[in-house]
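Page 47, continued from p. 46.
Same chain as before, 334 aa.
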Amino acid sequence: MRFVESFNNTLRNYALDDFKILITAVSKEANMLSYLDNNKNKKQSPNENFARELMELFTLGRDVLYSEQDIKEAARAFTGWRYNAEGEFINVKRQHDDGEKLFLNQRGNFDGDDIIRILLEQKECAYYLCTRIYKHFVNDEVDEGNVQSMVKEFYPHYNIEALMRFVFNANWFYSNNNINAKIKSPIELLVGLNRLIPYRVDKPKQLIMVQRMLGQVLHEPPNVAGWPGGKEWIDSNTLMTRLRLPSLLLNGGMIESDLPMEANEKERKRKKALLKVSVDWDYLSAALSLLDNFMLNEIVIGEQPKASVKAIVEEDDIQKYLLKLISIPEYQMC
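Result:
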């Protein structure tokens, strides 16, 4: 966790840049080099972890185009990629294997930058990335035609900003099939509530407790692949926490850190705490004065609620109406 701030800043700085710039910068981050053991990758004993994940998770997908031999050759190309005590990238020449490599049917004295270049030359890389973006932003059920239109926009220049503009301006992005087709991640849920009703958790550690209760703590993914997402966000425990979340945050409530089943009652009481939150009700009142219930439905849940739901949440007071609206299951979707 030493260099997580630098890693996060790199993601923010290059998120909408050329993907080649992003993946190269990420590959040279101390956090990534350490996590995937490339700081142990030297010519006498190549370590394949980073090379394998670069292809499987970040560029091509599992077993697409590459072989085990390609992984070995790529690992050789990345030998010597290290970081110093300050977390700055360094290329240790004496640890780099500068011999000839054969990678994806191309031959040369490749280094890590060459491997990234060759990977991005493959149209399968653009297809894999577009599929991942489609699943994240549009729908877990992939429409092949829509993805192919994304690939046409993305390849070969890999401009992420241009791709995202294309997606968000596409008619199919706003089709009924893709509205409320995805379950919000815990962080999306928390951030969305904050944008709707500005709040500040007075004790930052309590915000971490809330994230843990929901199943997603920032910068603590379960593995290199990250959180599985989708329906995996919801189970019997997290669903109830999600539905109670607006009340917990806006009205105050007891929260409890996750403890093993065998924890005794004394331990559980010690881990409970009253969530202390400051809410900008004045901002909310000013914003709501410009809206009616119909407009609020479109903004908050993206559609008009069914009659059965409307009967439950209907209120003359628009502030009470909003609080009910963000507590219904439909608000969990996006």
